[in-house]
Design a protein that fits this description.
Blueprint (H helix, E strand, L loop, with lengths): L1 H24 L8 H17 L6 H11 L5 H8 L8 H31 L54 H10 L3 E2 L12 E2 L7 E3 L6 E12 L4 E11 L4 E7 L6 E2 L1
Helix pairs in contact: 1-2
Length: 265
């Protein structure tokens, strides 16, 4: 019985040794940290040594070098040129850990550079500027400024009397500006010429309408009733419109406004 148990034990021991040797020689790098890789190989070595299978430092060094990923190919070349007295397991372990730290730092730098490059093309949906996301925007939504946080904004609890919203004041209200543009759609900015001649025009090539106070120079006259606002909010009545024939051009749809001091366009 004893002999049978010894035979079974010895067979089990040989099977374990064979299995561990396969694990040792087939061991591969699987994206673990370098310290974990070296530890796993050292554990296999210790278990094999306990089964009287000697695994020396040279075999461990060879196994570690064959497990390294492609990014360590320059490291392997540098290690092969290392003097023999420096090719120790301790030295290899320290150099691999240092090399791993350098790879980590480079990856971090590349990520930062890539992120900055991507930032050039992104647009914030809060301030509509290029270069950052809405979650990173520093603009206060209430006053549109960047020198404080929204919770500290003085306009946070105020309310626009025009549109009833609390993210702006009345003077910056879109609807106020929209109403003002309608109100002053027919505003006339007037200047007066002190010289009095029979026919004189103050010419403005950017004007949208021509005006005169002399109906006798208008041809194709048509009566109309329209109001023109002056810059000082005074109203002037346009009683008709017609065409003024000049020497080099004709002024179409010239308004007849009796209150004008001279001729304008």
């Amino acid at each position: 019985m004893y002999n049978k148990l010894c035979a079974v034990f010895e067979g089990s021991e040989e099977r374990n040794k064979s299995s561990l040797l396969q694990d040792f020689f087939n061991f591969k790098f699987e994206n673990q940290k370098m310290s974990q890789l070296i530890t796993d190989i050292e554990n296999l070595r210790m278990r094999l040594n306990n089964l009287n299978q000697n695994i020396d430092d040279d075999m461990v060094i060879s196994k570690i070098l064959t497990c390294l990923p492609n990014q360590y190919k320059f490291f392997i070349t540098a290690w092969e040129s290392t003097p023999d007295d420096k090719k120790t397991l301790t030295n290899l372990t320290n150099r691999l850990l240092s090399e791993e730290n350098r790879f980590t730092e480079r990856k971090t730098e590349y990520k930062q550079v890539a992120f900055k490059a991507e930032n050039k093309n992104i647009k914030c949906f809060k301030c509509h500027k290029i270069g950052h996301l809405k979650k990173d925007c520093k603009m206060c939504i209430f006053c549109k400024r960047y020198n404080h946080e929204e919770k500290d904004c003085k306009l946070k609890n105020s309310c626009c009397s025009i549109c009833k919203k609390n993210n702006h004041t009345e003077e910056n209200c879109f609807f106020k500006k929209k109403g003002d543009s309608k109100k002053y759609k027919n505003v006339a900015f007037l200047t007066q010429n002190s010289e009095q001649t029979s026919l004189k025009f103050i010419v403005d090539s950017g004007s949208t309408v021509h005006m005169t106070n002399d109906p006798n120079i208008l041809s194709n006259f048509e009566e109309m009733d329209s109001t023109v606002y002056a810059a000082n909010n005074e109203k002037m009545k346009a009683q008709g419109s017609g065409t003024v024939h000049g020497m080099s051009c004709d002024l179409q749809k010239t308004l007849f406004i009796p209150d004008l001091a001279t001729y304008y366009q």
